[in-house]
User: Fold these one by one.
Assistant:
Number 1:
Amino acid sequence: MAESARFKWDRASRGYDFATRSDAWRYGVAKRRLFTTMRGRCLMLAAGTGHDFRFFPPDLRITAIDISGGMLAQATRPAGNHRGRLDLAQMDAQSLAFVDARFDTIASVCTFCSVPDPVRGLRELRRVLAPGGRLLAFEHVRSRLGPIAVMQDLMTPLSRRVGPDLNRDTLGNLARAGFRVLREENVYLDVVKAIEAIPD
Amino acid sequence: MTRLLTLAEYGAGASIALATAIPIHALVHPGWDLVLAMLLGSAIGMALHMLLGFPLGALIGMFQVMLPGSLIGMYGGMLFAMRDAMQPASWTQTTVVAIVFGVLVVAGVQLYDRALRTDAGGAGS
């Protein structure tokens, strides 16, 4: 499963910046606001091509991981531009190679729409998050509005072939993985959300 | 930039509606079975919104184009096909109604977005 995800995102890495360029303008302010509270030892999931590194506060030590080597190859330059230390590593979010309670903050951008088993991935995050640590997640989720949710359900079999699922219940998955949501902000409709969560 | 993107969302909605209405108008004629016409219209709308939505979404905003676009494609496709199966419509009528429908759906989605865009509070509410 991880192998197919790696292959998919390696392939997607070629056009990823083009496909998400307008999202960077749209969501930059909300992402910067969400990541303001990053502190201590930080982990970033699904680093992608690194275009979200610019929204991180300076002077942080961050480990950024991604399942795709193709994505990470493009993330090298943005990582070098971070005003702090930012290390890149290729890793599957479902089986993190870190000891328990290793990080004080975990940041994710559009990650749990793609992780094949999101609850397993979130449980891994809970494991590596130190007591008192926070998960800051910028995610798109399934709408609670019927007509929009139906369209997300219909589009997901296609979107899944080239990128993310559009209908994940990430808030429910957070609860299932043992997180408590402290803050939930609607960034676009009730689909794109900024979420702050702690281990329950 | 925000205003420009908002205008572009209306443009994208109108374009998807037009791209849906035109082939339906060419295919569906009065006397068609209403159910088949609506199913065909919906399928055409869904397919065309996917085709147009991806490039437009990259330029304007993936969700801001794809979500209203999917509503326009599916429900607009049904309505356009129903109209074309029930009455003769001119190309001008087809074009104007499609643009109006696309713009109205985008306006509705933008209004709903504005109503929702607040800090939704805690505890998985």
Number 2:
Amino acid sequence: MRVTLTVNGRRHQADDVWEGESLLYVLRERLGLPGSKNACEQGECGSCTVRLDDVPVCSCLVAAGQAQDRDVVTVEGLADPGTGLAPVQQAFLDAGAVQCGFCTPGLLVATDDLLRHCPQPTDADIREALSGNLCRCTGYEKILDAVRLAAARSGETAGER
Amino acid sequence: MTDTTARPRTDGGVVAPAGGAVGTARTRLEGRDKVTGAARYAADVPFDGLAHGWLVLSTVARGRITSMDTAAVLGMPGVLGVVHHGNAPRLHPAGLFGPDGQLQLLQDDRVPHVGRPVALVVARTPQQARAGAAALTVTYAQEPHDTVFRAGHPAGRPAPAAPARPDADLGDVEAEIAAAPVVVDQRYTTPEEHHSAMEPHASMARWEDGRLEVVDSNQGSFMVARVLATLFGLDQEIVRVRAEHVGGGFGSKGVGPQLVLAVMAATLLRRPVRVALTRRQVFSTTGLRPATEQRLRLASDSTGRLRAIDHATAAFTSTIQEYVERNTEASNVMYAADAIRTRTTVVPLDLPTPGWMRGPGAAAGSFALESAMDELAQAVGVDPVELRLRNEPSAGPVSGLPFSSRNLAACLREGARRFGWADRDPRPGTRREGRWLLGTGVACGSYGAGALPSTAAITARADGSYTVSVGAADIGTGARTALALVAADALGVPPESVRMRIADSRLGAAWFAGGSKGTASWSWAVTAAAADLRERLASVDRVPPDGVTGRGDTTDAIGALGKQERQSYGAQFAEVAVDTGTGEVRVRRMLGMFAAGRIVNPLTARSQLVGGMTMGLSMALHEEGARDEALGALVNSDFAGYHISAHADVPDIEADWVEDVDDSNPSGIKGVGEVGIAGTAAAIANAVWHATGVRHRALPVRLDRVLESGFPAAR
Amino acid sequence: MREFAYQRAGDVAGAVAAFAAAPGARYLGGGTNLVDLMKSGVESPERLIDVRGLGLDAVEEDADGGLRIGATVTNSDLAAHPGVRRRYPALAQAVLAGASGQLRNAATVGGNLLQRVRCGYFTDVTLPCNRRVPGSGCPAVDGEHHNHAVLGWSEHCVAVHPSDLGVALAAFDAVVSYETGAGPGELAYAALYPPVGDTPHRETSLPPGALITAVSLPAAPVAARSRYRKVRERASYAFATASVAAALEVRDGVVHDVRLAFGAVASRPWRAHAAERALTGAPATARAFGAAADAELAAARPLPHNGYKVPLLRNLMVSVLTELAEEAAR
């Protein structure tokens, strides 16, 4: 079947998509966007998290057909082409929240969504909101720092306005 | 390969002057690629004409393959071939450290355990390969199997001695125990555990112009290439292995089954083949930490001074490769005692071969030793921190060798101060918050340090840049960034002028990212190359267009090293809350103080240590491979069933270090990859005792175990 | 995964007709369970009928205090709905206690009710499992059953129902509405899952081809004072070891109304009728709560390695009821 969808603001069309493919597979293997990672393929780790119609989901559990005509944002679409890294990306980099980097794309999408809905989260908010994103390297502490840092910076920016 | 340049922090961190790069916090060189999704891992790299291989795993625990219906699968859409023991290339004996039976894949019809690869289905797309693999009917002649580990198993046999550390036999353990007023004699068990790096193993292999090219996910491309060449009978010159970005390893990413099978398929089908494992396949085929059963006998005088340490451990291995889990290492070096004895037993079973998993030996060994020390502290009536300080040795307790540096006492004292240990009521069960009982615990850990022979080259360019080429691996450790800092200081230039090339077997002989010895080994070689380059640059007026290259090889220098006890040390403190109604254990805070030599990059080193402590927390409370005894199969081989700590499990956690000068190698580096997990589980279990009054000698400290053993000390 | 077809249904009648026309079809909601099981080979439908576009995604508040929840309302939307939070707080808490944010964003109410068990023998197609392959055996009975059932199991299957949401639905007498080719129907949620018996593969009592369209909760003033508590090895993002949904109304120190259901202890969310009967009219004291728990758990038959679930459930029930009673007394 043919699947047409918008990814990171661009219309994409994939032909001969097999119905059994996941959105993650379409992104990685057909659209050349391997930023979203396949670490468990069963929704248990969050490494494949993308925003689907503005809501973060595990793209490994979205059937390709379900993505038809929908809007997808991946880690590749977080950065603003004009201004460089997105605030969450810069914060993850600066705080040392990135180690092997394999969970990072999903965490960034999840964090970006958390801060959109909850600009000043408590530590408990952060821990619960990101518990669907497993990480084996960092021990999460630096990830927590990064989210706090991103929140603080956006708070400063908001304050300057 | 991307060339990357060191950048200073962008959050206001000071850019160090030339010569002061080591010791300053630096964000990682490849960080930008990782946060934008641009970093390419082994399964991310496209190739023209790429075919995909899918593993078929054995479903019986012991037996022989009697038939395999490949014809039906070969007729399926997209299927290009099936590799199996009837057509696979013959392999030569090879392995990272001697011949490894695990790598002899598809060589015969024997099935040594559930989850052994028995075929690879190759197709045009991953789904077609997967469908083919699912459809491949394999029949087996099953044989009786034995997969149930216990220390007294009749198949158990003494492990061969470690080359550098034979079984300890200091003094007369039995006489000391018989004469001592206080004796702790307990058994401790730890379960099968799985590395669970986030990136599943993946490899791409292709033949190009008579050369074998591999894109892999591994912990040391040079050593992997050497094994691959030997295995397939190739000249190592024609084998190139790269692993630019690796999504974690923790010991599991040596020569993976996916790599051997990808090379087989690429050889047979004459096209590029990628084999990417599923999570379930990772659980089955890429090693594990074996279950252990350890007996610890500690004897002391009435003040807690140790008279005897008797540490006997048993762990399982497979029937195709002997892996020894060396749990007794720390008992040789942690504490002074009149008599020390260590024994290690291996029990070969019809199970997958275990392997190094973060803190191999030490993670499980420290649980037993440091739990027993806590029990001794309780029995003697001495504070557990003080007990350890009283038994601080001045030289290797068994070897008699001097410590290159130690500073465990400093870790204990500084950690106790920061944690607020002095305010602790030693009696268990005294702190309560609603339905929660609170407790605190301490434990120590160590892990062997050192460097292994490696080579490096540094090329100075006319534009003022320096390219460091070293066969290092960065599996998330920050090695790439750390080595840039080491090179900058060794060259006396700012880190911004250093470019790094790593993770390519063509860069020359280099040690693995393993044993906490990667950064120390590579740094030494980089330092040597820098010295060579500076000499060469001194003799030229200007850098010629093709640059000037200096080279380093540490083989001779390392061979000439004097004998010393070299370890990283740590003291960990934990506070837990235990729900008296449900048995749930939640860790509230943890502090680790470490003596780990020179810290090259505080930002990434701290992450390594905190990550190790978190894996220790996970080990203490969650991780357990559940095997069906009748089937020999793992029944929780996914992340829904095999729990690793999630974000909400990890509390306020802090890792820091004390000054620790080790001048036994020029960089002073000891390694931070493993010591973070050494002692964590004991600190948490000791804290659970302090909360509840019950000793938990079996990991993980599950809520059912806590609930069923009750809360006798609760006031 | 085998070859299969995917189609989006435009309306309920069309979905039901498409299902009837395609043997081996499955309705697809959020996909969080079905797509996973398709990859592992546990499920191999020939046609997926995507039902998320049927307009079943609203939560309606009845004037009398009840709720009607559309089958494709996502877990996230359900938990965030003010009417749910006000009228049935235990329901919102149960939903939020389940899975992760990403999964709750995709998972639907209908799909949640029909999710399959998480038993390790069921999810690995290389292992025997009566639920997946009738007659192949249940190795969990003598094997790894540390987190399996203590109530209502049979030797043919000892797996537990994994839903958190369902525990609250069981406590509040939910009714499941469905559509078939022969017209609409209703089924008490309590009757949705037949006893395991010797047919563990028969997982629901819905007529063949039925599409769940809504779940209704009758008005229950007691539910406004309700709570869901989940015990699990991880602090978040783990299936329950045991859970309790409870609602309590106390008048003059006496239990006037009480609802109780247990999760992760049986093949279905377990409504604790015996405990409710024992408590109604009893003093709202920890002693009475404990006696009521004992009345319910008298029927428990733990397996060799999950006996802990009995005291765990007792403690959990007493603890949650005590909290509710204390709050009511304030």
